[in-house]
Write a structure and sequence with these properties.
It is a single chain. This protein is an alpha/beta fold. It has 7 helices and 10 strands.
Length: 208
Amino acid sequence: MKKEVSKIISTLLWETEAIKVSKDKPFKMTSGKYSPIYIDLRVLISYPLVREIITTFAYWIYETERIYADYIAGGETAGIPYAAWLADKLKKPFIYVRKKPKGHGLTSQMEGKIEPDKLILLYEDLITDGKSKLNFIAGIRKAKCKVKDCLVIFDRQEGGKERLLKEEVNLHSLTAMDECLEVGLKNRCLSKEEFDFIKVYLNQQNIG
């Protein structure tokens, strides 16, 4: 079933053009690196049916993986809507985590009514190397709450899962780069040349 979920999500990403590929003019990433493939899950918020499917599958992962959380948290900014929708489906309190503490007022990195020592599920759009997720996790723990699981829609498979595991946080994903590339190739959204080019790029990232 998990394999089928991954295929469905991957197909939706290609059909909504959330995935962009460019060999000749690579995309600049947040890290400063350049990539021949860019995943923009922000576009999905404009597709009501797609976001409903994603939220339902996220709920399914939460149940089947036996995740437990007192709160559902989204990270600023892309993770906020997805986490809010999942919190609503689970009937759990929603909070969000800033990239850095506010420079005024309560100078908090967390927003919402939060009680200490609660277990929080961090739900994000995607993960690359995991550095931004570790920043959110640090913010959660600084607020004296616990986080053991992180759920993402898309895993770029560039070391994020391993980095989170070192902080004793398990990563769960609805789909990942390998599956998405296979679906793209099969559905002719991606040429064999582009497929091979991206594979070489990913191997270089993981070696590095």
